[in-house]
Amino acid sequence: MLEHEATLCRKGGLILGLSMRQLAELAGVSRGTIDRALNDRPGIAPEVRAKILQLAQDHGYRSNRAGRMLRLNKSPLLIGIQMPARNNPFFQAVRAGIEQAARDLADFGLSVVWRTMPGYDSAAQVRQVQELIQAGVHGLALVPIDQEPVRRELAGLAAQEIPVIALNNDVSDGRRLCYIGNDYLHSGRIAAGLLGLATGPDPVPTLILTGSNQILGHNQRVSGFRETVAARYPWIQVEAVRENLDDDALSFSLVMEHLDGHPELRAVYLAAGGVAGACRALAARGLTGRVRVVCFDLLDETARCLRDGRITAAISQEPERQGYLAVKTLYDYLLDGTRPPDRIITKNEIIIREHEDVSEHTAAGQRRIP
Amino acid sequence: MLEHEATLCRKGGLILGLSMRQLAELAGVSRGTIDRALNDRPGIAPEVRAKILQLAQDHGYRSNRAGRMLRLNKSPLLIGIQMPARNNPFFQAVRAGIEQAARDLADFGLSVVWRTMPGYDSAAQVRQVQELIQAGVHGLALVPIDQEPVRRELAGLAAQEIPVIALNNDVSDGRRLCYIGNDYLHSGRIAAGLLGLATGPDPVPTLILTGSNQILGHNQRVSGFRETVAARYPWIQVEAVRENLDDDALSFSLVMEHLDGHPELRAVYLAAGGVAGACRALAARGLTGRVRVVCFDLLDETARCLRDGRITAAISQEPERQGYLAVKTLYDYLLDGTRPPDRIITKNEIIIREHEDVSEHTAAGQRRIP
DNA sequence: CTGAAAGCGCTTACAG
DNA sequence: CTGAAAGCGCTTACAG
Fold first, then answer.
1. A76-182+320-347 under CATH 3.40.50.2300, yes or no
2. Quick check: pTM over 0.90?
3. What's the pLDDT at A300?
């Protein structure tokens, strides 16, 4: 792995690279000077810097994370979290992941400060972000509302070199360190594959319920679905696409209404919320089990629907892990400049009824946080 | 969280518990003495120890992991890994997870030493475990062959207080720190649910191919499957259960033979290996796609079968994560005595064809290691 | 039985 | 521009 065996040192069987101390000895300077060179700090003669950098490269020097992490306890890192729609159970799962990461990293000099709000008001989001900056955060993770005021604010943070992570929802102009969340297009394709697997070869009249046509992720879940259906599952026949605004009552009446005109309905695909409402409508018409239901995110009511056999399957996107990784990724970046990939995509987990059956010791394991 | 606010100290917004240094000041002793009391070391007056322990409890003292982790670089930790069947692609995935963890923890004073072997010879496994002990490992993870010589050896290690993790396969007498792997019974149930979802209501004559009746995990996958089928999916009719010894050639001929007697076959459930062989037999009879195939573990050939539509779905058990967690769990235990649960159960991930479709940025994300 | 020192690898504030 | 010291929290020799 490391190229210059000569400079490796072994301790109790462990092969180590060299430390700043050893590098200092090699270069004949103090450790402070090594630090100045390696970390681009001012107050060092250019030729000394060059020499040290060369030496570091030659010997494969890599900064040791344990040293930095301990050091951070002396001048701790503060990161801010901003989340909209705080009553949404999905975001509560994301939040649980964030809190777990905060606990895990507390010993390593990290602390986390929160701002949450109900709903999706971009002005309020901007205000809370500014509050976090005022509080002195070194980095920020938020579920951005992709509108102009928010984008402008994020551009400002980019200028100040404050790293920002877009969590669960991306911003369209990409002024952020990275995106962590679902690939919505792909998840739509998975949903199609799943419904394809659960149906056919007889025709399957299908209703699509999306949350809002204004939301990119929802649209991508619809188009990913349609694309795959067209390519592989011709028996799935989309009769209509309706917006339910993630609302159960609206979802209920849309399904009822649809059934009036299309009694042959055999599948409902929900790209966003309103799952329980749709299930209620099917139950009201005695169609539970006869009509396949595929949806996203396994929380609360949805889990209950799955256990009751009212849902065929759900596709989950590792919400806790999204939250955990947001904190961890920011921490690593702030610790030693580790650059994450542009997008960190979480899995599309297909959850069926049997996942919810509790076997001996299983439940805890299946629901563990990253 | 911490109860005694009075003794908390704040630094840059971070709320910290107290350190050994502060505890030493409070107790009016040196840090060495604090260490002796807290870590049960000899050479300390009983009443001093008692006083310090009381004080630590009162102030909610918790040892800081960053301190310990850095310290480990001075006298590094060595853990041993023993794996059988080294050519098995499944174990290579586990291995990749172990190697990732080893890289992640190298900065924190961990190094890993390996012994692997072909096949499943318990005498050879015992020998390699002894070699690792000779090499001075502080802990051990292995895929144990659950036979008497191995169990006896593990009992010996338990007596020496060397922590051992059973990876992917448990030992029946439980002489180990913890088990990390699949819940085979549950995974059999998931397989049944999946096949149930992909079939019915017409009868589905089904062939079960298991690896070996000698292997507990395989038997559990069969019984979990049968149990759930009986309870929920009566149209799934098991015509036969045959052993293919994880062998593709045998698997091929068993399916061919079965089809001779049971041309109405509509599903094959593979509880272990030999997937490609079974698929080849179905293809030879022109039954690809007409006969549902559900199997475990997505590697190499199996992944290809899935992409080609020769498999309906596979159930994966996070092999990389199993390996990663084995190392991490041992490390945490050796670092500060963190006790893992008795069993750490990895997920049963249902993988369908659309998971393998590569979307823009998806592939890397879906296959990331923990 | 107890304490003072040194060290793991890093960074910062201070003195020159 | 550079170095020596102190410190993050822990543990281990060593001296008494």
1. yes
2. yes
3. 83
